[in-house]
Amino acid sequence: MLAPKFDLAAAARQEMMDQGFQPDFAPGTNEQLAAIQAGMAAGSSHQTADAQVRDLRSLLWSSIDNDSSRDLDQIEVAERVATGIRVLVAIADVDARVAMGTPIDNHAAQQTTTVYTGIRTFSMLPEILSTDITSLNENADRMSVVIEFVVAADGSIASSDIYRALVRNCAQLTYSHIGPWLEGTAAPPAKVTASADLQAQLKLQDEAAQLLRTERNRMGALNMNRVEADPQIVNGEVTGINTRENNRASELIENFMVAANGVMAAALGKAGVSSIRRVVKTPERWPRIVALAAQYGETLTAAPDSGALSAFLQRRQAADAIHYADVSLAVIKLMGPGEYVVMHPGDHEQGHFALAVRDYTHSTAPNRRFADTVTQRLIKAVLAKKPSPYSDEQLAAIAQNCNLREEAARKVERNMGKRIAAVALQPRIGEVFSAVVTGAGPKGVFVRVPNPPAEGILVHGEGVDVGDKLQVKLISADPRKGYIDFVR
Fold this sequence. Notes:
Layout: H1 8-18, H2 29-41, E1 53-55, E2 61-65, E3 74-81, E4 84-92, H3 103-111, E5 115-116, E6 121-122, H4 127-133, E7 141-151, E8 157-174, H5 175-183, H6 190-193, H7 196-219, E9 228-234, E10 237-244, H8 248-271, E11 275-279, H9 286-294, H10 306-319, H11 324-335, E12 339-343, H12 370-383, H13 392-425, E13 432-441, E14 444-450, E15 453-458, E16 469-478, E17 483-487
Parallel strand pairs: 1-8, 2-8, 15-17
Antiparallel strand pairs: 3-4, 4-7, 5-6, 7-8, 9-10, 11-12, 13-14, 13-16, 14-15, 16-17
Helix pairs in contact: 1-13, 7-8, 9-11
């Protein structure tokens, strides 16, 4: 008699609860959704009567995201101007639909993030909101907050502005199709083929993004080309695990996102209001990063230097693109995660070490990150010349909870990733894999194998450290516990 198949969906729900999440929405949610939909039916979605709201629906907006993405937070458009390339990034106006203190807002404040488990997505907002009502869907009129900036010829930001606008996404596109086309390795997808104007628009956006990237590299931003697992799930069963890597299209969106977040942070700072910043502090394990570079014959400075680290990573990518993801992952682990902090007027900016920027916040994903929704409310209050909707004490509590929930979300996603990988690896017990050490501490030594991308514990892993390369043999894969065990 065959053993029953492991229920990944049930495991995901239990994992959420084990890490302190509430998979179900609170009482009052359905009533609030009904009220939101009734307001839309009454015509309140077109708020152009408000003098602060511009009507930019005539522009050739587009979005680029993952193939499976349904919560579209960001769309873009660009135009050439005398001082460079003007880029407009429109962010979904979640606050226009979800008022502070309502059941849906309270749930989002508690959860703080959408959690992606591979088998199921646990949305911070009800799906009808995050994938429809507040999502910048194709051919739908939506309220937004627009972050505008001009990219000069040297990649610097020449000028910027923020305002509210009504927008319409003309083309929902994907990284997997736009990236290869921009790189010249594939034909454009049908939507792009059908429109010469859209082709020119995307090329102009790419030009601006590459200018931004060059300037970011000059400033010392780290190019982290992470390889992410992309589980293939059919009818609740794992059929395989593919890999997803950065390409020219994902770089375009990343560069626009970083620039937009920087403009937002600077605007809040200039307005003299307290806000939530996203920071990555100077790495405490810098000596280990220096030692990692030394393994490749490179010498880094004794004091942390993002520019020197960036140059090292660029040389590694040029020398060995195939294994660059291993080096990049090791550096990411050694730097440690980012965190949210409250920035008060007059405070010294802590900055973002990995991005090599002084002013940085999260503002471009309010459908799936509560910190972004809070930032949206702060800037809307500034634009309306109204008092901040949050006290300093409230912001501090939100930042702390966002940090705790983000760590919990990483645990859920990591544990579910291991369960999915264990299901995929069960038929391959006994095989030998190339691996890189991704963690070494009191809980043991962890290694990552590339095909399929999976992380597990190295039994008897004494004497190795993050970044070391090994040959390992898979000895067990238990999806119930999420255990994947290797030996050298």
